[in-house]
Specification:
- By secondary structure, the chain is an alpha+beta fold.
- The protein has 2 domains: 1-147, no CATH class; 151-252, no CATH class.
- The chain contains 10 helices and 6 strands; from the N terminus they run βαβαββββαααααααα.
- Strands 1-2-3-4-5-6 form a 6-stranded mixed β-sheet, sandwiched between helices.
- Helix 6 (152-167) crosses helix 7 (179-192) and helix 7 crosses helix 8 (194-208).
- The longest helix is centred in the C-terminal third of the chain and has 29 residues, at 234-262.
- The radius of gyration is 24 Å and the shape is elongated.
């Protein structure tokens, strides 16, 4: 696929990345040269190795939702790569860039189905794999907090950074000069006053119509709570509602019992 025909938000991966992923594909029987799909007739082997790249989780989700990708087409997102291993299908060989160790394969994921069904779940999945170490990915421990795997806070920080880098350039913020400044601010604020991050995302959602920012704000409020005095978190409000419902139920039961006794 030529550069000018790539979907919005994508660009062609650089030559070194293409070469490294093409080499990694030789470990996969469905993707390697002379692989399973062409064993009966090698002359039918016509699919080139083609890799797009994006730094946006929304563009990544759109890529998978578009569907009908050819065998050997793939996409790179930061230190993750996804390569289609079923022609026209939705089975993505998933790899992690481990530096000197190269690209390590660790999963096969139906990314299109997840992105279509639940964008929030998809964004969480990508963030988990991104913040996890190569070893955690290899052990398939990238979605839990056991044995040092990514915590909920790490995943939330990663997702805030993704949205901020795309829609809220840190260089225009008067309190933040670099991406690391922004990351430090997000990490510390999520710990102390997560409501400030919620407000930042809700403002972004309103001003630039970024639905993902709104859903992430709701997730942060639910997962981290709100440390600002007098404003309970979604979870606390839900618990209060449940407690109130239980009290009403008990009161209703007692009233019925008294009415029966009066009869």
């Amino acid at each position: 696929m030529e550069e000018e025909t790539r979907p919005l938000g994508l660009h062609q991966a650089d030559g070194a990345t293409v070469a490294a992923l093409t080499e990694a594909c030789q470990r996969n029987g469905w993707l390697k040269s002379g692989g399973y799909p062409w064993q009966d007739d090698p002359f039918l082997e016509e699919y080139p190795y083609s890799f797009s790249e994006t730094g946006s989780v929304e563009a990544l989700a759109d890529f998978f939702r578009d569907g009908n990708w050819s065998l050997r087409q793939g996409i790179v997102y930061k230190d993750l790569a996804f390569i289609n291993q079923v022609d026209g299908g939705d089975e993505w060989w998933t790899l992690k860039n481990a530096g000197d160790r190269g690209w390590l394969d660790f999963e096969s994921i139906s990314c299109g189905r997840i992105a279509e069904r639940d964008p929030e779940e998809f964004a969480d999945l990508i963030a988990c794999m991104h913040v996890a170490s190569p070893e955690q990915c290899e052990a398939l421990e990238y979605t839990t907090e056991e044995d040092g795997s990514p915590t909920a806070k790490q995943v939330l920080v990663s997702r805030v950074m993704d949205i901020s880098e795309e829609y809220m350039p840190y260089e225009v913020m008067d309190w933040c000069e670099t991406a690391e400044d922004l990351r430090s601010y997000v990490e510390s604020t999520l710990e102390s006053t997560p409501g400030d991050i919620v407000d930042m995302l809700e403002e972004l959602s309103y001003e630039k119509d970024v639905e993902l920012a709104h859903t992430l704000a709701e997730t942060i409020e639910k997962e981290m709570g709100d440390a600002r005095a007098g404003k309970p978190s979604l979870a606390e409000r839900a618990q209060a509602a449940r407690s109130a419902a239980e009290r009403i139920g008990r009161q209703g039961g007692n009233l019925g019992q008294r009415t029966e006794e009066q009869r």
